[in-house]
Amino acid sequence: MAFNPAIDLHVHGLLKGYLRRWLPVECRTSLPQSRAGMVGAQFQVLVSPPVFGSRFAFRAVMGQVECLDRLVGRFPDLAVVARTASGVEQARISGRTAYLVGIEGSHCLDSDLGRVGVLAERGVRYICLAHFVPNRSCRPSVGIGANPKRGLSAFGREMISACGENGVIVDLAHISRRGFSEAASLIRGPFMVSHTGVRAVHDHDRNLDDDQIRLVAESGGLVGVTFVRWILGGSEISLVARHLEHVIGLVGDDHVAIGSDMDAPMAAVVSRLSDSSRLPNLVAVLFERGWSRERVAKLLRLNVLRLLESVPPRYP
To answer: Which pTM does this prediction carry?
Structure first.
């Protein structure tokens, strides 16, 4: 892993840092933990409870961006914000951890498409359209208001266009089945599912079926497999490998990544992957299952770098 430090598509360390103003929360993706586990880059995902209203949600995600600014400002020799593949590589060369930014749930836009550009200018590289409640863009696959037959709204279709104009990758985790297929037909370029499992291994509405996996691969995008127990269907570390191997068997090893979802509220992860420092345990399991070094390198890093190169940011 020394020459291929991992990139995690989906963690919530910034959310934990933001919540520490009010709650005693423990972070599992901290800078020391990540460096100990050879995690060279993380997509820190900004999220806010929609129950407090979309105006609060936008303030909350901007507050998390400020937390990232403070972290990097405090440890400039150890951490840096990156937006591009070259930025991630420069961080590796200089021995620093690269932080990239994603958004989970388009409710934080507060019905204002102009905020896609605002967020892109602040460094947001991807937006997950859905979360666990309905929003103006779409319905979730599970949670409040889940409905597999409900697709994208007019606002959701316009949002996909706005993401394309601003070099923001569209993330189709959490979205309803119909919303997924409609979005996939509209996105011009690669898209991803940042944190998920596959239905062939664990038949759950939160997970991708084979047709959806093929759509991701046809776009040139990525399926990020999570470490969360209820999505994978159990607590064994080998389940992460099984979900990954199903994707690889279906579409090849150019379309897999890690999207752990560590530090998400109430999301227990599988055994032996309790925090970012434990990632080498997964790598060991993959080698035991016969994975080549080339395949592991693609999973941990190279596939994500390719995606970043394929969708350049408007504000590099």
So the answer is: 0.94
